[in-house]
Amino acid sequence: MMRRLKYDKLLANLECWLRHDVELLAAIPVEELLVHLTHLGAPSECYVMSLKREADGRFLSLSQAVRELSFGDNDSTLLICRPDALAYYWHGEIQDASAILRANGI
């Protein structure tokens, strides 16, 4: 139970921590997200960390994960495309807080 609370807190506050490093941020409208992630080398499947319990902890096809984000869900979600290299953070409520996160050189 305690681990889940820490996990939820991490996702809920991620956008606050990301705002301190603007170089990591590249706000992309969700409608264009699949094209951008694919262009950056995202594989066809991603790991989902989400406050939305039914999506959390699952591997989904990238297109399915992006489609689910586009339904206006208000739960913070992190799509991990390539561990330590490429991810997408969806705030849910604040579009400007959503961002592609990538390691330098990608």
Give an overview of the whole structure.
The chain is globular and about 35 Å long. The protein is 30% helix and 24% strand. It has a five-stranded antiparallel β-sheet. With 106 residues, the chain is an alpha+beta fold. The chain has one domain.
The overall average pLDDT, rounded, is: 76
Helix content: 25-40%
- Alpha-carbon Rg, integer: 13 Å
Count of distinct structural domains? 1
| Structural class estimated from helices and strands | alpha+beta
Termini separation: 36 Å
Q: Secondary-structure map with pairings?
A:
Layout: H1 2-18, H2 33-39, E1 45-50, E2 58-61, H3 62-69, E3 77-82, E4 86-90, E5 99-102
Antiparallel strand pairs: 1-2, 1-3, 3-4, 4-5
Question: What is this entry, summarized?
Answer:
30% of the residues lie in helices and 24% in strands. It has helices at residues 2-18, 33-39, 62-69; strands at residues 45-50, 58-61, 77-82, 86-90, 99-102.
Tag the structure with descriptive keywords.
single chain; 106 residues; alpha+beta; 3 helices
